[in-house]
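Quick note —
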Amino acid sequence: MGQKVNLNKENTVVLLYNKKEHKWIDGNKSISSVFTAYFYGKFTGYNICFNGTSKHFFYKKDSVQFFNKVKNISIEKQDVYVDGAIVKTSKLELFEKGYYRVHVGKGTIFTRNVTLKSNRHKNILKYYTLLADYAGRIAEEKSPLYFLSQNYKRITPSDDAVLLNYLKGECTPVFDNELLLVPFDFNQSQIRAIDKALKNNISIIEGPPGTGKTQTILNLIANIIYRGKNCAVVSNNNTAIDNIFEKLSEEKLSFVAATLGRQINVERFFESDRDEKLTHFLERKEESIKSNTSLRIADLQKQMKMIQEMEVETSILESQLIDLQNEQRHYDNISDNALIINQRLSSNDYMQLITRLETPKKLWFFEKWLLGRKFKVKIASQNVKVILSSAEKLYYQTKINTLTQKIESNRKFLEKR
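Predicted structure written out below.
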């Protein structure tokens, strides 16, 4: 028997390798004593005695690990997660090599897979809950403040709740790779809004009346239902909710919605024959359902995206055309005594010539010859300004013609669609 190892279980953790389970286990609870083991004077491992027996068991030195405590971790303002799940712990200790000892109930967990997250949001929620509780005690029964206090008592935010992200000031992206459906009217900005709303836990869509907020909400509802999820539409007035329900009814989709809130709405919902409307809808759509529906939707989505992008491009081109036409008026007032240069080149060619002539760097003979050959004009120091004026006029002419043709081409394409 070798020397006894001084084992302070408060500051040291012993890991033993379990051959059957092929993993390391925390031996602190079961070990009563540890002795070094030697064979012909050579250190080979440890003789370990467990609780309830005086017998020693030999462990090779590679099958035993000792970890000393580094420090205690304050968890007053932090939540502790083990393997991604939050645990209720009374104490957290950091050991060597990145290990933690997590005290859970009457036991402990010794692991590297520990994550600490701020729990500041709990104090925020607690603060507002106490305010609501106080308001409920001083408010009259059935008053808004009283109902507010009752609602706060029902709040138990989970780790994946939107409220938790809001309290933390975080916005966790949501992976969404499903097809984007737009059965209701839409434009490019609404498409972007729908896509962002589906990929974020919290989204704010705002705009003046008539900008398509209702259509955006309707398309969002369609996508949420398509993904097999439920959707709650709430508002501080009944008019907005009625408007949404009316639009769904116009498309024969009222059976997917229940207008709740008032008691009369609840009664009306359960009295209505939703099954009949659903059956009628399925029968009406049955003939149009094909095996390649997803492929056809994907193809239509690509076409829709292309059309929307072309509409945006056309709008940008029209804006650029107006700016160029305004700038061109300045050059229309310039004398026509400018030198005639090659008029069959592109606007990019003329811009390159303008940029080069405006550069202070001297034009060498060979460069003058190349430019003169391309633009069919003799370039000399005396006529640079005249050539520059001609190039600028031609640039605006060709650029405006190019934009006009592109805009007309886009419009013809969009008209056919």
